[in-house]
Amino acid sequence: MSQSKTLQQREKELQALLATEAGRKELHDLASEYATMSGKVRPPGKSAITYILVYERVQGLIDH
After folding, report:
1. What is the pLDDT of residues 27-60, one digit of tens each?
2. Which of 20, 45, 46, 64 has a CA that sits 20 to 30 A from residue 27's CA?
3. CB–CB of 10/53 below 8 Å?
4. Domain map of the chain by residue range?
5. Contact 1, 13 (CB under 8 A)
């Protein structure tokens, strides 16, 4: 992400990726990358989108 977006903007952007196999892979890869950087595993049953949004919010990448 090059500039801050609102939570709603980023969520819609990530949800749009669910429409294709390549987009779903991108979500999985991004969640895995964030898990590696944070040292925290995505909790079972939590979506990649939720995990990504929480990580980006904590990192200050998403406007409140």
Report:
1. 999 999 999 999 998 888 889 999 999 999 999 9
2. 64
3. yes
4. 5-63
5. no
pTM for this entry: 0.88
Residue showing tokens 């669910």:
18
Q: Are 61 and 4 in contact (CB under 8 A)?
A: yes
Residue 1's pLDDT is what?
Answer: 46
For residue 16, the SS3 value is: helix
Sequence-ordered list of residues with C-beta below 8 angstroms from that of 20, at least 6 positions apart, any chain: none
Residue among 62, 56, 5 nearest 31 (CA): 56
Q: Cα dihedral angle (14, 46, 33, 36), rounded to 10 degrees?
A: 160
**pLDDT confidence of residue 11:** 97
The pLDDT value given to residue 63: 85
